[in-house]
Amino acid sequence: MSLFRQLETLTQVSWVIWSALFAAALVLGSGLVVRARLAAAGGGVIPDAGFSFRNILEVLVEMLAGLARENMGPDWRRYFPLVGTFFFFILISNWAGLVPGVDGATSSANTTWAWALISFAVHQYVGIRAHGFRYIHHFLGPVLFDAKFLGRTIHVRPLAPIYFIIEAISHLSRVFTLAVRLLANMFADHQVVAVWLLLLPAVVPAVFMGLGVLVAFLQAYVFALLSMIYIGLALEEAH
Q: How far is CA 99 from CA 23, 86, 94, 158, in A?
């Protein structure tokens, strides 16, 4: 039985919550460590020598910042902390699932659906905040022609009813793609590692665990990237 399932037995609190708290604590602890290092003399100016935890985090943050600038435009700094939280929480949860005796929160549908719904709510909020009522135009399709009415120019979208249904389904499907992709990939990856650990406790499982580290990173990367793309689309003006 894994550590978090033992805690569930002892406390009657779901192992998913324990695993999520563990991942959140690691994310918060990492942030506090980096903040303390930056507050020290020369912090943030002189990089650490050689291979260090701070250097690894800086590389990851720079990579995410580059993606954010590219996909979310000039306002990327406003939404970057949230997307960064997506990435690091999912990454740590994914890697935790590879450790024998430790369950990763992303192996549970509760976690993947929760993050997918948060991502969906955020990019819808961003669109409404940026455009107000005009955000509805994202669901009404292209303007085919303009018409004059009472001295005002009206953008006519005759295909709006059809486009609204299509766009509504498309937007809702984002929740499914984010949640199901993450859950399916991580559940399958963790199960493969667990099976090989039972069959051959040495050598072979290490190969799959190495691949699992890469898969875990890619799934966190894809989730964060898609969230950035959706936010960027919400920020764009509808045509």
A: 13, 21, 10, 56
